[in-house]
Amino acid sequence: MKKEEAIAYKAHLKEMTKGELIKENMSLKRRVDKLSGICNVEDTFRALVEQEQAERKSERLERQVSNAIESIKRELERRSVPFQPYDSLTKLIDLLIGNINQ
Questions:
Q1: Which helix (H) or strand (E) holds 30?
Q2: What's the CA gap between 68 and 28, in Å, rounded?
Q3: Is the pTM of this model over 0.70?
Q4: pLDDT > 80? residue 80
Q5: C-alpha to C-alpha distance for 24 and 10, rounded to whole angstroms
Q6: What is the DSSP string of 44-96?
Q7: What are 83-90's contacts with CB under 8 Å, separation 24+?
Q8: What is each CA distance from 69 to 1, 66, 74, 79, 102, in whole angstroms?
Q9: Which helix (H) or strand (E) element contains residue 40?
Q10: In whole angstroms, what separates CA 74 from the centre of its chain?
């Protein structure tokens, strides 16, 4: 919905006269100034960027853990070690180490 609103707003701006555009610009500037008084815009933007980076890192770590679980499960199957599909990574590692030490 926001994309459609942005497109409609952009079309509306194209239809405005120079005076209306100046008025709209001043209105937006007052709103930004007001928000700047409430919170530091740069800090807010930096926090959003850091949050996005953390989410990407989290997704990458989740994939790596998932790949590790699958690798250990394949090795346990190859060694014919019984395990449950829902076992945790720690339990799977313990089973594999126990089988290796036998």
A1: helix 18-38
A2: 51
A3: no
A4: yes
A5: 12
A6: HHHHHHHHHHHHHHHHHHHHHHHHHHHHHHHHHHHTT----TT--HHHHHHHH
A7: 89/65
A8: 39, 5, 9, 15, 21
A9: none
A10: 30
